[in-house]
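We store chain and fold; thus.
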Amino acid sequence: MKIGKFSLNLTAEVMVKVSKEVLTLFGIIVTGDDPDFDEMAVRHELLTDPAPRVRTKLSLTDQAGRTELYECESAGDGEEPVSAAFHRLVKLNFYQLLRRCCGMPPAPWGILYGVRPVKIVHRYMERGMDRAAIERRLAKNFAVTPEKARLLTDVALRQRPFLLSASAKDVSIYIGIPFCLSRCLYCSFPANLLPNEARLADFMQVLEKDMRAVRSALTRYDLRVQSIYIGGGTPTSLPDHFFAALMEAVGQNFYSAGVAEVTVEAGRPDSMSPGKIKTLKDYHVTRVSVNPQTMQARTLKRIGRSHTPEDVVTMYHDLRTAGIASINMDVIVGLPGETRADMADTMAKLATLAPDDITLHTLALKRGSQLKMNLSETELPKDEEVRAMYAIARESVARQGMEPYYLYRQGYQSGQLENVGCARPGAESLYNIQIMGERQTILGIGGAATSKIVNPRTERMKAAFNAKDLKSYLENIDTYIEKRASLLAEAYE
């Protein structure tokens, strides 16, 4: 839908932002180019008697000059700060009025916005709310559909034992290897094409310095490593001897009998070798991610992958033969040119492999990706098709005995959906649960890594970021180490 002019009586930046989010949610654009309506005017009245309330009026003027007026009012629940309540109610009212005046269908996630919606459910649980009350609250406060409310609650319930059993002294380690053999069409991750050996040697030297600094902090504050996650980029894009050196350094600095999980993102078959598989076993790796994204050969070529579905199968079997305990596989729903039949075929092929964990991503149009920059040249499935494809994938993982255990959302996801990790009972990734829960300190090492340090006394989290570009990371490592050390001292001294 096109609107010639949009006016809002609240000019605060956050109020403008939440209004734009709702317009984007329904695909409404403001343009003077052949609009469907001349003007949409929204007026919010903020009230605080006795609790936060917002009264909203929306007027919609057509090209003949006729104006229709719509009104609604919503109240806060008394458990959120006044300012937060106002922001939510402004957004909720605008969402409800657009659905009423323009006949818009409900959005799967309503007005719930943000990367980690499961955290809201955990907060409700800690207030003593049961499943039914939580799902009603999600519908009332955020207009979340029943299906997504059930999904959020399912995920939270599955996570609770892991989150509640962790000690304040438990931490996880993330090591970022910011290199790939090539850049996929949809990718916006801060990864560099694999540099020459001299540059790799420089990186490894700085990376080991970064590791030693974290090792020293673990000793100083008597912290225990629960899980280790080596991601990127594609860590296995490193040449064999550099990959072996990486894993040796990880083992020396962080591995002990108390480490419950060691994950390596292997990603693509063209990055794997017999030498790397041996290294994975030698250094206690318990979980490997094999990420085909699709098992359709033409799609792999279209998105810039230089391997075949058969290569994925070979890599998978090689890892199983080597005795890797848990294998995750990633799938992207909504890739260019794909259909329901393609998704059904991909999921059937993965089912024959019997992985322990499948993560279902829905395609996100990310700033900086080739896909986003060249969108006009790419045919993407419509939202309705993406939702049907996603349903096929969810049904497939359920038939394989997998249940959802972690979930996150991104901006501009196809079908207005989510990314969800599904695993067989006992195969849940501890790291994935903790990084999404933001209740455990995650110490980030390497390029583009983030440290999220949770103060055990206040339960407040603060973050420190390593540079995304390789040059800055190498040249300013002391600055990043110092920032992380400062936050650790604040939390644990």
Q: What stands out?
A: The first strand starts at residue 2 and ends at 8. The mean pLDDT is 94.
